Amino acid sequence: MRAWTRRHSRIVDTLAISPLALLCVSTVEAFSRTSGMMNARHVGVPVLLLLSAALVVPLLWRRNHPREVFAVVSVVSFAQWLLNIAVLPANLAVLVAMYGVAARCTRRWALAAGVVAEGGLLLAMLSWSPDPMRAWPSASVFVVAVWIGGMYANTRRRYVESLVERAERAERERDQQARIAAAAERARIARELHDVVAHNVSVMVVQADGAAYAIDSDPEQARRAMQAISGTGRQALAEMRRLVGVLRQDAGSPAEEYAPQPGVAQLDELVRQVRDSGLPTEFTVSGTPRALPEGEQLAVYRIVQEALTNAIKHGGPGTRARVEMTYGPGLIELRVSDDGRGAAAPRVVGGHGLIGMRERAAMYGGSVEAAPRSGGGFQVVARIPAGMAA
C-alpha cells in the first residue's frame, strides 16, 4: 500500500480532499442564505463556489509544496476576510495546509504556520462571532491539536528516515568491509603465488641451465638436474593447486583436504632443495625451539624462501649461502646471507620480494633489514616476536 501511494501520490491527495470538496458543494447554498445572519456580505452561490475552489484546489500540491500551498490558502482567506465574506467549510483548507507545513517543513516554518492560522482564527472571531473572547480559546484548541498532529507526523517521518539512512549506511559499510576483506585475501594469495612461483621457477631455471651445460660432458649430472626440475615443478604445481583450489571451491560441495601450509619443519626440505639447485647452503638453528602459530611459521618459511630465491637469482656463479635461525627470549631472528654479487646486481623494477618479506614480518610485529654485506654479498635479517598471533 505504501509503495502504491508513493507511485500515485496525486490520486491519493485528490481522494484525501474529496470529502472536503463534497462538503463545500453540498453546503454552499445553505451558507449563502445564512451569511447575512453573521453580519457578513451576502454573495451568490457562484462566487462562493469559486472561493471554495480557490481554497480547496491548491491542496492537491500540498505534498511537494506545503509552504507555497499554505501561503496561497492564507492569502485567499485573508482576502475573504477583507471582503467581509463569512467563513465557509472550505476555510478548513487552512488547517489542512497548516498540517502539511507542520508535517513536512522545519519547526520554524511549522511555528510560523501555526501563528498565521491562529491569527486568521482570531480575525474571523472578531468579525463574525458574538462573543469572540470566549469562542476563540475553544476554537484554538482544535487548531493547536491539528498543529501538534502535524509536528508528531514530522517527528515520526524524520525518525523513520534516520532509521532507513542508518540501515543503508550499515549496508554500505558491510559491503565496503566485504570488499576490503576480499582485497586483503587477493593480496595474500598474490604474495603466496609470488613466493611459490618465484622460488620454484628460479630453481628450475638454474637446474635447466646446469643440465644444458652438462648434457654432453656429464650426462648423469644432467639427468639429476632434470629430475630436480621435475620434482620442483611438481611441488610448485601442488602449492599453486592448493592456493587456487581454495578460491575455486564450489559452495555446498564437501570441503576438500589441502596440504597444510609450510612451516618451520619444512625449512630443512627447503634448504635441501636449494642445495640441489646448485647453491651450497648451510642451515643452523640455535636456542631452544618453541611452538609457533601456523601463520607465524608460514611467515618464517616464506622469508627464508624469498631470501634464498634472491640469492639464486642475483648471487652469480660460485655463490654460497647461509641460513641462521636463532630462538631468543621472546624473539626469533632469521639471518640469510650469501657471498655472491647480489649487492652489485641491477635491481628489478616492480619487484615485490623485499616488500612481501617486510609485510609478513610486520604482520607479527617484526621487522626486516636487507642490505649488502661489508665483505661482499647480501644479507637479510628478520626479527619476529615469538608466539604472537596475528
List key phrases describing it.
protein dimerization activity, Heat Shock Protein 90, His_kinase_dom, alpha+beta, rod-shaped, transmembrane helix, 9% strand, single chain, 390 residues, two-component regulatory system, 5-stranded mixed beta sheet, membrane
Task: Describe the protein in words.
The chain has 390 residues and is of the alpha+beta class. 64% of the residues lie in helices and 9% in strands. Among the domains are: 2-130, no CATH class; 263-390, Heat Shock Protein 90 (2-Layer Sandwich), CATH 3.30.565. The longest helix has 83 residues, at 132-214. Mean pLDDT is 82; it is low at 250-257.
Q: Tell me the strand order in the biggest sheet.
A: 1-2-3-5-4
The percent of residues in helical segments reads 55-70%
Give the strand tally: 5
Q: Main sheet, how many strands, which sense, barrel?
A: 5 strands, mixed
Rounded to an integer, what's the Rg over CA atoms? 43 Å
Strand-pairing-aware structural class: alpha+beta
What is the percentage of strand-forming residues? Answer: 5-15%
Distance between the termini: 52 Å
On the 0 to 100 scale, the average pLDDT is 82
Total DSSP helices: 11
Secondary-structure element string: HHHHHHHHHEHEEHEE
Organism: Microbispora cellulosiformans
InterPro entries: DUF7134, HATPase_C_sf, HATPase_dom, His_kinase_dom, Sensor_HK_TwoCompSys, Sig_transdc_His_kin_sub3_dim/P
Protein name: histidine kinase
EC number: 2.7.13.3
Brief synopsis:
The protein has helices at residues 2-7, 9-34, 45-56, 66-82, 93-104, 107-128, 132-214, 219-247, 267-276, 294-314, 353-363, and strands at 281-287, 321-328, 331-338, 367-372, 378-385. It is α+β, with helices and mostly antiparallel strands and 390 residues long.
